[in-house]
Specification:
Distance between the termini: 84 Å
Strand content: 15-25%
CATH architecture of the largest domain: 3-Layer(aba) Sandwich
Organism: Microbacterium schleiferi
Oligomer: single chain
Helix content: 25-40%
InterPro entries: P-loop_NTPase (IPR027417)
Radius of gyration: 34 Å
Structural class: alpha/beta
CATH topology of the largest domain: Rossmann fold
CATH superfamily of the largest domain: P-loop containing nucleotide triphosphate hydrolases
Protein name: FtsK domain-containing protein
Length: 393
């Protein structure tokens, strides 16, 4: 810095304290100087006489822990705002967002990192949300995914996609990934797809790659952060909720006030056997016994299909009465001709415990609507109609 090695010859020790070498622009060689000692009083006097503007710091202050959502201009905002970006190389901290015409955003972060809050904030800026899908109600989630994958006019939000896949029965997982894929490909043009998850697993990686923007919030483990697409130098396991990287840029997500009340999930009414004959495929479970007892109390007659069809003849229909023919899947297979005839004439109710025989008994290859394991549900097939899930209790 001074052009020679004079500095290494300054003696060490207390006697040399304050000794320095200075080389000005016109000097041929460094000039030794002695730095004066200034006390606190002198420093205070100099500071009091100073009238200049405060010196500008060479860097901006760190991002705050809470960033309120900004007030939008009267004409609105062409972007979906995400948060306040910190760009030290440009010496600026400005709001950052994503184009409303983009397919969407994938938000990834560990529990407590602010994924749900971020999705709620992003969703509040979308004119219409067709479905908000979560892992709390698997049946509603499955119905919503199928509905918006077929047709929609607004945005779709999926919160906890990895948790949803982990909770689904194995035969529904790949189908759900296919629904995510279809929704992502059909998104864009003011119909964004907001996908939130805790870990980017292999089955969801392809779906996340379809979305042009990725927000990485706090990850507890570095390997998970790298698997999510983050850079090793950006991993911060101590980051506060809402702090993350949007496409590599450090941001803090805007905060909005939480909703005053959450919408209650509506459930369809309990299905009651109609007048006439209904075939019921079920196993001898405690749930089936409870359902049969309730039907009996309501005046429904439940007969054994083996006894009623043992002679090969269909039972006589009693006007104004509801009759249930009950048998296990193996018994119905032995009475295939009678089941085929009855199935074409009236309802067929299948208990989810008989899912392995569903395709054989119905002749349908597509997956039936999801039924939560252990819940009192059934698949109802009626002539000329699609299969639907019904509540039995």
């Amino acid at each position: 810095m001074i052009g020679d090695d004079s500095a290494i010859r300054i003696p060490a020790g207390a006697r040399s304290a304050g000794t320095a070498l200075v080389k000005r622009s016109g000097d041929d060689r460094p000039v030794p100087v002695r730095i004066a000692v200034a006390g606190d009083d002198l420093i205070a006097q100099v500071a009091d006489r100073s009238t200049g503007a405060p010196a500008r710091a060479p860097w901006l202050e760190p991002l705050p822990a809470v960033v309120p959502f900004p007030t939008l201009p009267a004409e609105g905002e062409s972007r979906i705002l995400v948060g306040l970006a910190d760009e030290p190389h440009l010496q600026r901290q400005d709001p950052v967002g994503v184009d409303r015409r983009a397919r969407g955003v994938c938000v990834i972060g560990t529990s407590g990192s602010g994924v749900t809050t971020t999705l709620r904030m992003l969703g509040s800026q979308i004119d219409h949300i067709d479905a908000w899908v979560g892992a709390g109600d698997l049946e509603a989630a499955w119905d919503d995914l199928n509905r918006v994958a077929a047709s929609r006019r607004g945005g779709v939000v999926v919160d906890g996609a990895d948790a949803l896949l982990a909770a689904l029965p194995s035969e529904y997982v790949q189908a759900a990934v296919g629904l995510f894929d279809a929704i992502a490909r059909a998104s864009g043009e003011d119909r964004p797809f907001l996908l939130g998850l805790e870990r980017l697993t292999g089955s969801l990686a392809r779906v996340a790659d379809l979305l042009p923007h990725r927000l990485l919030l706090r990850h507890a483990q570095r390997p998970d952060y790298l698997a999510s697409g983050g850079a090793a130098r950006h991993h911060d396991p101590a980051a506060p909720p809402g702090r993350g990287r949007l496409d590599g840029t450090l941001v803090h997500v805007f905060r909005i006030e939480p909703p005053s009340e959450l919408a209650e999930t509506s459930h369809p009414p309990v299905w009651q056997p109609p007048v006439g004959l209904t075939c019921w495929v079920t196993r001898a479970t405690s749930s089936a016994e409870r359902i049969q007892a309730r039907w009996h109390d309501g005046g429904v007659e439940v007969r054994s299909a083996d006894e009623a069809l043992g002679a090969g003849l269909a039972p006589a229909r009693e006007p104004g009465r509801s009759v249930i023919l009950r048998a296990e899947p193996e018994h119905w297979q032995r009475m295939w001709a009678a089941l085929t005839t009855l199935r074409a004439q009236g309802p067929l109710l299948i208990d989810p415990s008989c899912a392995g025989e569903y395709r054989l008994l119905t002749g349908r290859r597509e997956l039936p609507p999801l039924c939560v394991p252990g819940a009192e549900r059934g698949w109802l097939l009626e002539p000329g109609r699609d299969v639907r899930r019904v509540r039995l209790g």
